[in-house]
């Protein structure tokens, strides 16, 4: 299992294309410097009126499959 921490700050306007299904993935940079591609569907529960803002932790199995994603703040 691998754990990554990253921040994500997107305005409501930036989220709109993702929410409407125009895009399928976010590419984020973890605090370790590694780039991670994550399906947008995992972030739908975090979208607010002002977009997505926060620090997240993601757990992936050894094959890169998402185990858990949480918002820390």
From TrEMBL:
This is DUF2835 family protein. It comes from Alkalimonas mucilaginosa. The lineage of its organism: Bacteria, Pseudomonadati, Pseudomonadota, Gammaproteobacteria, Alkalimonas.
């Amino acid at each position: 299992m691998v754990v990554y921490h990253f921040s994500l700050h997107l305005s409501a306007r930036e989220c709109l294309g993702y929410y409407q299904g125009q895009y399928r993935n976010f590419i984020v940079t973890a605090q370790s410097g590694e780039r991670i591609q994550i399906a947008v569907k995992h972030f739908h529960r975090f979208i607010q009126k002002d977009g997505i803002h926060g620090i997240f932790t993601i757990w992936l199995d050894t094959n890169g499959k998402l185990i858990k994603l949480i918002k820390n703040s």
